[in-house]
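Consider the following assembly input.
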Amino acid sequence: MKKQPQLDPTKNTVQILFAFEAIESRPNLDPYGAGLRRDEDTGQVLTSDVHLKHHIRRGLKPAAEEAGMEAPEIFYEKKDENGVSRSLVSRVEALGVKSAEEILKTCVDLPLFGFVYAKPSGSKKVPGESFQKNGACNTLLAPRTFHRAKVLYVGKNNAFTQKNEAGEDKAASGSAISDVLEYGMFLTLLEVNIPALTENIGGHKLGDDPEKWVELLLSGIWKAYSSHRMSSNTQRGQFASFLMAWQPTNPEEITPTTLKQICYNEAAVTNVVEARAALKGILPGFLQDWKWSPETEIYRHDPRGILADATK
Amino acid sequence: MPQNNQKVVLFELFGERALWQLPSEALARWSAALPAPSALAGILGASLGFRQSGRPAKSGGWETSQDWLSWIETACPEVAVALVTPVKRQSMNTNGLKTPAELPASSGGTATLRILQTFLEEPRYKVAVRLDKGESELISALKNPKFPIYLGNTHCCGKILNPRVVLAGDSSAETHAPWALWSASLPDAEYNWCSRMDIGGSQRLKNDGYIHLPPDSTAGSLEEKHWFKTWAE
């Protein structure tokens, strides 16, 4: 069942639980080692919150179009419409804004995730004042598999040799090994702060209704991992599993159980059947700790019944 | 002498991770173990809903909410803090600044500055606050904070748990971990690594001082020596 979110005006926060699966993939990589991010204590695979937000930004664009916004802008888009890398100056110039605050009111990702605009020194082509605004949406728990994961190592051999420093052909073609996550069901818990959102969207081109923006975010999350996935090396093979939002009553009574604390560690989970079975033993207690209840739920998208099955 | 009959606001602070910045660390981002007085003041201010403009301050940094500064002046909050979980750190390499087109072609055109951030993993703090006025207002705010709570950095979201009013001598104000001490200048070298726990931008140092745990610290009740003032301009 998918509902349009209806916010309780007495509550300041919305919590969002999002699950996605990664199958034979390399979700996010350590930029130094170029390997999977792993928790050595538990065997979980994790991604940074920045990686998650980068995905979601891609989904926000079609979600905003669906919400009636013509040509929505995402501020942190790495490349322009021709695939050319953008500088801060060229990005801001393309927006055609007169003030730094207007950037916030133009782009759909900034009221949710925030930004710091440090005016590029020496440029007269962009607004001259610095500006910063904290985002309304952050991860309480950054994405990680809720279980110990199995990592495989794949060897790759080049077909031909390469040149050495002297310009001669090397004696042998090179080879390399990369790690691959066989299967992982990632969970992440996000929080949307409604007063911060309300402040950030005042005067925005998409309107200033917080319910509409929460709906936009939920839609953007789902699209980023379903209809608008990307095929890049660190983003392929990842699929949305379920999405749920609720507004906890008495948030000060939450038991802030983390995904590390609930890690399913009896065996490495290697497919969705095992994941669904393991989730049954973990999710009800986790949701109870974070003050979910049917009464506090405001949104659910669970097309495969994974969530319903786990909380039955 | 501790005033055991004095009312104290007590709460726990928790996050999946924290990144309390050390002034001595620029991009390496090694988290201190304890928040600075100013960081605790910011958490109180966010709970109470003091808005920041987002504009730069003339003196550098970002403009501070005048309402928040007025509240600090009126309520005169003092705080005490104890880290009740073991210090455990988690490293994460991240891509930082990107400078695509501004760089000359000779530099390769595109560069990404990589940052190693070392967070505290799943820290939990006990925080006590005593103030001249506005106690009930603060308790209400802590129960349902108006703005997000950050543990030193905007990608370290935190939660305030179980805020309540107790007496300073109450057993719930005791911890199994020592309460931190504050000093205006850098503590003696004989202090353990925790003596590095000074926080805030360098411009705040003279106001923030140093939060530290002497090596012979023992767990126990909240005493007068554990209280320190929050930062204000």
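Residues 100-109, 190-204 of chain B have pLDDT under 50 and may be disordered. Ask yourself how this observation constrains the way the partners meet.
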